[in-house]
Specification:
Length: 139
């Protein structure tokens, strides 16, 4: 969990559009497919908002787990899913995995749904920010 100072710094960085202090090399051009995306392990603005509004007082991890969701056999490539947040629910001490979406990206949703079906013993949440409020759906 972040200290209050670290949380404020992270929030300030996200609001200013910084990517955790990462600078591009002057000789490297940015990947056009990656423009607008944050570096792995750095919260984007929506994820920061979710953490600040919904996970207050909960010790959570960000992008700390990976789930194999398919492939690896019969010539198919392996597919992995990395959820945004994971934490132990304080009321019953069960693992909760949360995906935060501002819009539903097809590839991301396919992997999310595959993980829900493959790992039914985990509580899965899809958190969507719609009309300035959070809609959280549990699977």
């Amino acid at each position: 969990m972040f200290t209050p100072e670290e949380a404020e710094q992270l929030k300030a960085n996200c609001e200013r559009g910084k990517r955790g202090g990462v600078k591009l090399s002057p000789t490297k051009k940015p990947n056009p497919k990656a423009i607008g995306r944050t570096k792995r392990g750095v919260l984007n603005k929506l994820e920061t908002r979710f953490a600040n509004e919904c996970l207050v007082g909960i010790d959570y991890d960000y992008e700390s787990m990976r789930f194999k969701v398919g492939g690896g056999a019969a010539g198919f490539a392996e597919a992995w899913y990395t959820p945004d947040f994971s934490y132990m629910r304080p009321s019953d001490n069960k693992l909760v995995v949360t995906e935060v979406k501002g819009h539903k990206e097809r590839a991301g949703m396919v992997r999310f749904k595959a993980a829900v079906l493959r790992y039914p013993h985990i509580t899965w949440e899809l958190a969507e920010y719609i009309d300035k409020q959070w809609k959280i759906t549990q699977f």
